[in-house]
Amino acid sequence: MFDQWVHSQVALGLAQAIVVCALALAVAWLGHLRKLELGRETVVALVRGLLQMLVIGLVLVWLLKGAAWWSIPALAAMCATAAWMAQRKVQSVPHSYWLCLRAIGSGSTVVIVTMVLTHVIAYKSTALVPLGSMIVAASMNTCSQVLERFASDLKLNAGRVEAALALGASSSEAALPYAKNSTSAALIPSLNSLRSLGIVWIPGFAAGMLLAGSDPVYTAIYQFIVIAMLYAASGLTALLAASGHERVAFEEERLVAGR
Amino acid sequence: MAGSKVLLRAEGLRREAGGKTIVRDASFALAAGEVVAITGPSGSGKSSLLRLLNRLDAPSAGRVLLADADTAVLDVHEVRRRVGMVMQQANLFPGTVAQNVGYGPALRGVALQAGEVEELLRTVGLAGYAKRDVAALSGGEAQRISLARTLANRPQVLLLDEPTSALDEAAKLVVEEALRAAMAQMAGACLIVTHDAVQAARLAQRTVLMQGGVLRDEAEKNAPGDPNV
Question: B29 - beta bridge partners?
């Protein structure tokens, strides 16, 4: 509809963004009527999201024209920011920023490097930045979910954890049920994505590949590779986040967190 | 208990946390076959003292000797198995009674046989409960399963941290009965923390008062476990 009146692509995008924001604000208004008070958070999230994406758009213009290695500091900066965002929900966890940075950084790096070495991701900015950022984002979500759930479960079950320790269990053995619950719960979205791939949803970038003239069967396989890659990064991040939290929650086989 | 072998000895135990001294230079000895009660008001440091004895907390000063060996140099898991602890809350793990009772031995790779589980359950007066889900147990039953779970490790010293404080009077007496049966079977020693002086007199041979983190005085009884004293 807008393309009849707006001829610049950026102006078109902004006009479309206004429509979507109006829709989100209408949802917030409905929430207000039901006394759910979503208004302030919705406005902040919408304004912030739009500004962030505008900035990212401008950075991408510069980055995608640059050398491939420019992607490395860009992805490192994304990891650092992702760690900061993930730790905000778990500030009660000691050394939470470094714990998140280690988990997200290692989980993402291992998968990105493996994918680049096997040429699944081409070593060029146009591939590394968008796919790398998807991996970092998936790791960030998993990391914050694991830490939030693990910390709260340990706190809720401090009595059981200490009962296990008092019976001679090691800290890993005592924390195992809660580590297991938190990692499984955090990986459910990634697993669901894998399970429902092609049945319930088709990733958005498949359309881009098809429009670019890619073979449909290869496109389908590549979608699977990307989603499996996200699962691998999430899984590795979950394991690292859980083991990292275990190290700070216990000290010399004593529970120090949540007591 | 003069002449009996000392199983557990605390020497100048001190615990400081949050700028406060919770346990102040506690020294005592626990001989084989002895049942000692520690009484005192809430917050006097009784539970904190027990936690130092099986290394759930680290002492700020002093040491604990288990059969003459300093527990600080022993493997912490071994110390906790040998100095078993029953807590104020049962804290049972989700699952069956048998899984809970077998937890400690399973950590060492030992699977308790059904007969061994049943024997432990009989000791605490809950024979036939092995297959029950712990979610369906009453407070008193859960506390007795917690006792059986600790006994499954065959501890030399049994620490009981107000094991009946969360129970009503009827359940309390049933748990006490289970405790007496367990103590009678144990060759080791038992230290029970309670704020109930009458219960201390019912269960223990001697009672030690703790106030403000200090072990104050002792009163010895004539006969162990004599309910008339």
Answer: B9
